[in-house]
Automatic annotation (TrEMBL):
This is NAD(P)-binding domain-containing protein. The lineage of its organism: Eukaryota, Sar, Stramenopiles, Ochrophyta, Bolidophyceae. Pfam families: NAD_binding_10. InterPro entries: NAD(P)-bd_dom, NAD(P)-bd_dom_sf. Residues 26-200 form the NAD(P)-binding domain. Coiled coil: none annotated. SUPFAM superfamilies: NAD(P)-binding Rossmann-fold domains (SSF51735).
Amino acid sequence: RAREAFGRGLAAGDNLSYSKIDLISANEREISNVITGCQGVVIATGTTAFPTTKWRGGNTPSKIDLEATKKILSAIHRINRELDESDEGRVKKVLLLTSIGTQRRKQFPFVVLNLFKVLDCKGAAEEALIEASENDKFTHVIVRPGRLVGGPWTNFDLAGLFKIENRGGEGVKIEVGDELVGDASRDRVAQVCFAALASPVCSDVDFAVVDDDEGKMDEDEMGAAFGRMVGLEV
């Protein structure tokens, strides 16, 4: 599925490689072999908030949202500890995709979403990332999207059941912290994550993102928004 998704519109021979790994059974050495040479890492793993068939084989929030994230961070530590801070082979930025409500999990409706501790696990993963970024000298970004809508509809909720798309347009709203509410189209979230990873000013920050059809941003506007989040005058 990754080859199909990323192959659209790309010329054959582009610098793309694919590796499949089981984050439940893999150790940090196996994971570090996959990400060695990457300066940026996006952690976008996850499972369903409530028990479904996707939990088979231990694919639960605690195993995926928390323990797998910690394994990836341990693999990054394994890579970076061997290299000095100027080495191009170091992991320099890590972006973690979690969810709105992670910092509001005692409030309604997020308390319902957290019945099986998915937001607890995501919150603990955020804390682990921040600690690892300080210890291993890389920058971090935490992105909290709203309810994911649009294909491939992997979540077992109303958005997946009724194949809910975004309402049109391409705009997004991004805001530091965890105060936004609303849906977030997968394609727009992906664009924001890529822009945040590539941005030299978007570092050591956490923010929420939801759809906003009136808020379309070009590359410069998104860069300015990232700058404002970290206190730069733009």
